[in-house]
Amino acid sequence: MTNNTSNTELLVRQLLDRQDIQDTISRYSQGQDSHQGADSNILEQWDNTFAKNGTVDYSVAGGTKGSYRDLAKWMRGEGATSGSMSGFSNWQHMLSLPVVSLTGDTAKARTDFFATHRGKKENEFNVHYNAAGAFHDELVRTTDGWRIKFRRLEVYFGDPLQIAKIG
């Protein structure tokens, strides 16, 4: 009887961990999509998404390889006017459910995404840009819940360097 109870408790803990990881990964896109145009405060969500020392590798898209705060600056620039997203008026990032592998207080997750971006009409890059790919995350359990320690971007299709030209 005790063995069944401990197995049940372990399974419940794993399910709760997976849900917390899913929520953490979703906060990344929420941060991106909730702060469009002049509202560049993606760190409102990202500070609760990444570990304090969280790093990213977005070099496949011509982006930063460094801290998640460096990524925010690359995407939004100073005052949301010069970053890689500045050529777009709106965007939406849709995520699949992550495939999660748990090992104690660490986890790995892979989440596919589809992102659509609408260009600003007032500039020469009035484009509608779509991209698909995956986020490869390494996560760590903290006292505040699961956080992304490292994220690597993989692009399946779309010309990610087009964003750098627009922004």
Give structural attributes:
167 residues, alpha+beta, Nuclear Transport Factor 2, Chain: A, 7-stranded mixed beta sheet, NTF2-like_dom_sf
Coarse morphology: elongated
How many β-strands, per DSSP?
A: 7
CATH uppermost class: Alpha Beta
Q: Beta-sheet strand percentage?
A: 35-45%
Largest sheet, in brief, is: 7 strands, mixed
Question: How many domain units?
Answer: 1
Q: What is the CATH third-level topology name?
A: Nuclear Transport Factor 2, Chain: A
In the CATH hierarchy, the architecture is Roll
Give the number of helices.
4
Layout of helices and strands:
Blueprint: H1 2-34, H2 43-46, E1 50-57, E2 65-67, H3 68-76, E3 88-95, E4 99-103, E5 106-119, E6 128-142, E7 145-157, H4 160-166
Parallel strand pairs: 1-7
Antiparallel strand pairs: 1-2, 3-5, 4-5, 5-6, 6-7
Protein name: SnoaL-like domain-containing protein
Organism: Acidisarcina polymorpha
InterPro entries: NTF2-like_dom_sf, SnoaL-like
What can you see in these coordinates?
With 167 residues, the protein is α+β, with helices and mostly antiparallel strands. It has one domain: Nuclear Transport Factor 2, Chain: A. The protein contains four helices and seven strands. Strands 1, 2, 3, 4, 5, 6 and 7 form a seven-stranded mixed sheet that branches. A hairpin with an 8-residue loop joins strand 5 and strand 6. The longest helix is centred in the N-terminal third of the chain and has 33 residues. It starts with a helix and ends with a helix. 30% of the residues are buried. The mean pLDDT is 85.
